Amino acid sequence: MTKSRGGLILWITFIITIAVILLAYMSIDNFANGSSEINFIGLTIKTGTIKVGLVFLGISFAFYIIRDSIRLEHKKLDIAASDTNSHKIFVTVHDQSSETSFIEGATVKLLLKPEPLIKETDKNGSAIFFYNRNTENVKSILNAEKEGYEKAQAQSIVIKNEEQFLVPLKSLNTNKIVDHNQRTEITTKSSVEQLIEVLEESARNEDNLSIIRYGLGLSRTLWIEGEYDLRLRLGFLLEDAASKLNDIETQAAVLIDDLGWTLVTLKKYSEAEQKIKHGKLLAENSKNYYLFCKALRHLGGINIQRRQFEEAILNLNDTLAFSDKIQDLKLKEEMVAGTNYGLGWAYSENKNYDQAEKYCLIAKKMFEEIGDHERAVKTYSQLGAIYENKDISIAKDYYRKGLLLATKIKRKDEIINNNLGLARVFKSEGDNCKANEHLESASRLQKEV
Are strands 77-85 and 88-95 parallel, antiparallel or unpaired? Predict the structure, then answer.
């Protein structure tokens, strides 16, 4: 029953009650005289009937209030959200009494300064916020409101002092997860493993929605932190949960990125190709051209790793062509920037350094314009590698800037790449002491990863 319908019944009950009270007032003298009936606007009404009516209405009114208060306990919103990439938060709102009952038309606010971002949920109970991940104004607090429901709130978990993803204030009902009413730092690998163990327990209990809720944001964190084996372990959980929920787009995204590209990083190219092609087919069938393009781009990356440069460039050019079908402007810009980075990588590996520089500079400029520093940082080590073959002093500058930015945003893979680049540069200049310092820094971090 909706709030508006409930309110109508309440008003009807109220009006009838007033009418009966008026009748009772008019019949006081009759009750006092022992009369068994009264005359009301030409109608003769038995006083006993009025007494019964008063009792009935009193009971009905009390029952309605009790029933409504019980019903209100079940009319609470629950809110879940995950930061699926560097500038997108995916939010779902549902009735707390039923996790599959998604709420359309809820007003969701992402609290920012000076003004919040406000969205309404669609028919699937979803809302998507785009914002600059690197802004210092993001508080990462969400409020959801809906007429007839109590307000819900979600806030961020902090991983290594960086806000990485949003979770409901209601925890996973296990003592392995601390109370989310307070900001909680997960600072060690063991605690992240503990969270994955909770999700594995959720999988055994068929709690697939919790796996999707909590796992998507954590996966991105594991990627940035260089925890590839843990990300792969989480990816299998996510893909299985998405499949069981018939969430085709999430399943495609996990196959392409969380599983596919992680396997590429671990140099398991055949298995990676299989996962990415599966995700590409799902994305194509659901007409999600962003994911379709990402699959093509990743296949191009596998081609580069296998030194199949013609095939790589073909896949990457196809990615650029299909990116025109991506409707969301921010996602389209990210895809085009990433694909230009891929083309720069392909040409660099094929020793066509002029073309490599051209595409890499395009990518760098685009990433910086959209405020995506997590991806922009990759272009510094690539430009450094390109300029090792053109001008060693410029290469050194790119590696130094890349190392500074990678350290600032704690991107371990790029800290390693830029340290290795600087080791090569200093060695070529005859400064073996500095070369060894950077080589040792890279080696220490590689062992951690």
Answer: antiparallel
Q: How far is CA 327 from CA 292, 331, 332, 362, in A?
A: 13, 8, 7, 21
Number of independent structural domains in the chain: 1
Angle at 221 between CA 315 and CA 113, to 5 degrees: 105
In a domain? residue 164: no
Cα first-last separation, the chain: 54
Domain region containing 16: 3-73
Among residues 356, 289, 347, the alpha carbon closest in space to that of 320 is found at: 289
Q: Is the residue at 42 inside a domain?
A: yes
344-369 confidence digits (pLDDT tens): 999 999 999 999 999 999 999 999 99
Contact 209, 124 (CB under 8 A): no
Indicate the pairing of strand 152-159 with strand 185-186. parallel
CB 333 within 8 A of CB 366: yes
Length of the chain, in residues:
449
CA atoms within 13 A on the CB side of 438: 22
pLDDT tens readout for residues 172-209: 333 333 333 333 333 344 567 777 888 888 888 888 88
This prediction's pTM = 0.59
Amino acid at 242: A
Burial of 391 (0-12, 13-18, 19+ CB in 10 A): exposed
**Rounded Cα gap, residues 44 and 33, in angstroms:** 16
Answer whether residue 410 is part of any domain: no
> Is 51 a domain residue?
yes
